Amino acid sequence: MNAIEVKDLRKTFKVQKNREGLKGAFLDLFKREYNEVAAVKDISFRIPQGEICGYIGENGAGKSTTIKMLTGILVPTSGHLSVGGYVPYEEREKFVQHIGVVFGQRSQLWWDIGVIESFQLLRKVYRVSEQDFKHRLDELVERLQLQDLLNRPVRKLSLGQRMRCELVAALLHNPSIVFLDEPTIGLDIVVKSEIREFLKDMNREHGTTILLTTHDLQDIEALCSRVIMLDDGRIIYDGGLEELKNRWGTGREVQFQFGTGTKLAQLQSWTAGLPLEWSADNDLGAKVWIPLEINVSDVLGQVVGKADITDIKIVETNTDDIVRSIYQSGSAEKKNGEAAVQQDEGVVTHV
């Protein structure tokens, strides 16, 4: 069953065209001219129930406009959408009972009252029974460690504390679908990790469908198996994260540290016949670039046991670099012979 279905969804806005000079400003008072700007251009996708999907794109790509249509805030110009079996902008009162929304830069909590009072007000908004509210609140407060924050005014919370409270506010009515728009923006690495673990647990235990928009691709790597990539209002990639890495990654770098001097020529002779690129600054360390079509284990098998190895690091293709390269090319379809990514910084695995 699909939690979200979108077909040929389009949203255009009329933007006033300002004419130059005093005469132009005078004419604008009486006869305004408009340009039509398409923010979302006939996109289609489906998200099955229980999936965590990353929805990414540069600023102005159309992410927030899509989320606002999916949550019923905006009415599409054309196309069809269904969220949890509802058309959001037509059945808003019933629809909102089944979704939760967190906007990282906007709060749904009341600024000057205690956190628990905000939760009580939201209970009434969502028409949650007192018994269900207490059970759900106890579960969320314990999981996100909010016991000491419930009686504090929201304005006295740190950003990380507030975001944890925002998550509770969005989940009090136990929605089946959750939209997260930049939920970890501005947070330190510890709080980000806590929120990611919480979201994974919620998805696993309750089967909650999550659509996540973020500029932090570590959120995507930690949470999402699928990515929808948007550019200039159009979907340029919809598929698995690993498939994206395999399609755009150029290979891996293996870094060796040796206990005793090992010549570069010796390493090259041990791996002769494999299309590898060896380099070394001295006899105690070396790097080898391994194309994707070659298994790392095949290379290690030629070196381990012959050299005095003290440490090995495998540097994987970095998702940030992959996405940057895709946007620079304007397409997720990799051209033959095109260098996809620069190996600037990578995810390091110790062996």
TrEMBL record:
<protein>
    <submittedName>
        <fullName>ABC-2 type transport system ATP-binding protein</fullName>
    </submittedName>
</protein>
<dbReference type="InterPro" id="IPR003439">
    <property type="entry name" value="ABC_transporter-like_ATP-bd"/>
</dbReference>
<feature type="domain" description="ABC transporter">
    <location>
        <begin position="24"/>
        <end position="257"/>
    </location>
</feature>
<dbReference type="Pfam" id="PF00005">
    <property type="entry name" value="ABC_tran"/>
</dbReference>
<keyword id="KW-0547">Nucleotide-binding</keyword>
<dbReference type="InterPro" id="IPR003593">
    <property type="entry name" value="AAA+_ATPase"/>
</dbReference>
<dbReference type="GO" id="GO:0016887">
    <property type="term" value="F:ATP hydrolysis activity"/>
</dbReference>
<keyword id="KW-0813">Transport</keyword>
<keyword id="KW-0067">ATP-binding</keyword>
<dbReference type="GO" id="GO:0005524">
    <property type="term" value="F:ATP binding"/>
</dbReference>
<dbReference type="InterPro" id="IPR027417">
    <property type="entry name" value="P-loop_NTPase"/>
</dbReference>
<dbReference type="InterPro" id="IPR050763">
    <property type="entry name" value="ABC_transporter_ATP-binding"/>
</dbReference>
